[in-house]
Amino acid sequence: MKKIYAITLLFVAAIGFAQNTTTSTQAIPTGYYNAATGTGYTLKTQLYNIIQAHTTISYSPGLWNLYVTSDKRADGKVWDIYSSCNFTFGTGAGGNQDQGSGGTSECQFFNKEHTFPKSWFNNTSSQMYSDPFHVMPTDKKVNSERGNLAYGIVGTATYTSTNGTKKGNNVAPNAPAGMTVFEPTDEYKGDIARNYFYMATCYQNLIAGWKNNNPNGALFLDGTNTRVYEQWALDMLYSWHVADPVSDKEIARNDAIYAVQHNRNPFIDHPEYVLTIWGPALSTAQFDVFASISVYPNPSNNHKINIQTEQILDEIKLINVNGQLMQEIKNPNAQNNTYTLENLPSGFYFLKLTSDNQSTTKKVLVN
């Protein structure tokens, strides 16, 4: 039987922005983005000119030394996006840094993961080989399981890590058939997406030539220096960017890298740049797993949205186009057979609905 639930949610702009998931202050140098005045791929080139000339950090010990500042959790342990292990910085007794052997099971050692695989760009002497914006500390065993697989959305997992990162067949909408992919846990999908938008921008003078370096990369890259990613991949990355907004962790990491490498990830400083650049290239395909969900009226002319679904919703999130979390409602109660969101400020939003560990995102326009 179809179940329709109701809850009234009051939104005001001041409260919404106060609940933004980021609270840290970004240390953006005065005037750093003054030349970023365009839209579309013009803006992308302007950002390339701002960030591409940067200091090269050595792969070792430069990255190891940086991670102690850029990737330290509040408890002093290593911030690993692929596992929930409690790694300690350093080598030898008491340290878990990769020492060249071991790492055959999870939580033994952490090493350096090219989230954008090095075999895709196939140039170990270039700046990108040790660029910490995409080279991150991760569990050595899980890193090995990933190899140079593309990121995607896993249907049936053949491997799952301690934090839910998994490997398996790709079920991302419109992706090529038969792909085996690697899916990070939801908490870090936005981080990964912003890594990839950074790579598309910082190395736009080179990235068009990388498509055929590796079979997995060939299914993800489109062979241009503008859109850069195949349509299915671009749509997926953008959905991750929106669903997992910029966090305090990313802001602090951006600042720490800038202090050493002397460039920044503009998509952490200005999440809205993603839509400004790639908006026209985005597909209208939705990442829906709930065929029965209906959101109406859309667009709304009365600042009200209704949600009808056969699923029992565990969570509702309203996210603006800048990636800011405007409202989060966990375990909403059933009332009067429909979810009703009222008093919504005018704007374009993404409505993320979660049920039984699966989620769907709907575009919502409020006039």
Task: Please outline what is shown here.
This protein has 367 residues and is α+β, with helices and mostly antiparallel strands.
- Biggest sheet statistics: 4 strands, mixed
Uncertain runs are 1-23, 285-289
Radius of gyration: 21 Å
- β content, as a range? 15-25%
Order of helices and strands: EHHHEHEHEEEHHHHHHEEEEEEE
User: What structural class is derived from the secondary structure elements?
Assistant: alpha+beta
Total beta strand runs: 13
How far is the N terminus from the C terminus? 34 Å
Count up the helices: 11
Q: Tell me the overall shape.
A: globular
* Cross-sheet strand order for the largest sheet: 1-11-8-7
**Percent range of helical residues:** 25-40%
Arithmetic mean pLDDT = 87
Task: Give structural attributes.
single chain, 367 residues, alpha+beta, four-stranded mixed β-sheet, four-stranded antiparallel β-sheet, 19% strand, globular
3D architecture notes:
It is a single chain. By secondary structure, the chain is an alpha+beta fold. Helices cover 26% and strands 19% of the residues. Strand 4 and strand 5 form a beta hairpin. The longest helix has 17 residues. The radius of gyration is 21 Å and the shape is globular. The N terminus is likely disordered.
Outline the secondary-structure elements.
Blueprint: E1 8-10, H1 13-18, H2 40-51, H3 62-70, E2 110-114, H4 118-121, E3 135-139, H5 140-146, E4 154-160, E5 166-170, E6 180-183, H6 186-202, H7 215-218, H8 231-243, H9 248-261, H10 266-269, H11 272-278, E7 294-296, E8 305-308, E9 315-320, E10 325-330, E11 339-342, E12 347-355, E13 358-366
Parallel strand pairs: 1-11
Antiparallel strand pairs: 2-3, 4-5, 5-6, 7-8, 8-11, 9-10, 9-12, 12-13
Helix pairs in contact: 2-11, 6-8
